[in-house]
Amino acid sequence: MRRHRIVAAAAVLAIMASACGGKSSTNSSTSSSPETTTAGSETTAATPAETTTPAPEQDATLKLAFTSDMDPPDPDTNYQVQGSNVMGSVYEGLLEYAPDSSTEFKGLLAESWTAAADGLSYTFKLRSGLTFADGTPLTSVELKAGFERRSNEAVKSPSSYMLLPVAGYETPDPLTFIVKMKYPESAFLSYMASSFSPKAINPKVLADNAADNAI
Fold first, then answer.
1. With contact defined as beta carbons under 8 Å apart, do 99 and 79 qualify?
2. Contact predicate 95/193, CB 8 Å
3. Which residues on adjacent β-strands are paired with residue 115?
4. DSSP code for 27
5. What is the DSSP letter of 157?
6. CA–CA separation, 59 and 102 (whole Å)
7. What is the DSSP letter of 123?
8. Helix, strand or coil for residue 173?
9. In the predicted model, is pLDDT for residue 42 greater than 60?
10. 151 with 160: CB under 8 angstroms?
11. Which residues are registered as beta bridge partners of 95?
């Protein structure tokens, strides 16, 4: 009897041990799916080709506006303020006034100049390589023709008074222009620097317009 009780107790203990024991571990296999990263192909917008806009054609015509009609562009007969602006763009004389000065001069056609002590002659040395717009050489001979035209009564130049003291001209070489005076004129260099001074004129133009003394 005692033996049966021991066996029964052992069976009860075995059952309790089985109930209280750790749960059977189930091998849970976590299948880790490989992480797939879909790299979307980066799309770069095509840069449009750079187009160069052609530069507009330049108009080579100079246009000036005046408050009144201008007299013909003749350097010996045009005696207008607006006319002097045009003359200065087309013709050149020996001298001009230095910037911001009414008493000092700078050369245009002349590279240098000297006055005789007695005031009876002026010697101008011209710049080398001077030409007219068409390539015709500009020497002391062409300059002399321009000065003589200013004094021609047929031209009727209103600024011919600038040359009243002049006796004549000499051209010993292509780059030397000498003005001989009848009497000293203190304003002579000022006349030569004036915008209305005598100008060099292309001899071809003078020849083409010799009939009416116009240019």
1. no
2. yes
3. 122
4. -
5. -
6. 36
7. E
8. strand
9. no
10. yes
11. 107
Output the CA angle 61-66-69, nearest 5 degrees: 100
Tokens encoding 174? 């292509």
102's CB contacts (< 8 A; 6+ apart) are none
Q: Which domains does the chain have, with CATH numbers?
A: 81-208 (3.90.76.10)
Mean pLDDT of 152-156: 93
**Token output for 176:** 């030397």
What pLDDT digit, counting tens, does each position of 72-128 carry?
889 999 988 878 878 888 899 999 999 999 899 999 999 999 999 999 999 999 999
- For tokens 């002097």, the residue is 84
Residue type at position 99: P
Listed residue (149, 138, 139, 122) closest to 209, CA to CA: 149
Dist. CA 213–CA 140, nearest whole Å: 21
pLDDT of residue 59: 79
DSSP characters for 39-100? -PPPPPPPPPPP-PPPPPPPP-------SSPPPP--TTT---HHHHHHHHHH---SEEEPTT
Report angle CA 191, 197, 201 to the nearest 5 degrees: 150
The CA distance from 152 to 156, in Å, is 7
Percentage of the chain beyond pLDDT 70 is: 75
